[in-house]
Fold this protein.
Amino acid sequence: MNPAALRQGISYVTNSKGEKTALQLDLTNKAVQEIVEDLIDTLDAMERRDEPKRSFADIKQEILSIKD
């Protein structure tokens, strides 16, 4: 990922005192899109970390039994 391309897609919103109050992301910028997608994936993983775990073998068996 190119940091310069990423910076072009990010700008700050400031108040009348020049204080940063918000962040504006240009979602047409591919580098920004990737960062936002990674952030959302991370948030999803954090929300699900306490969910019960299932083994790959169990899930595979469940999928194969649905096909029958």
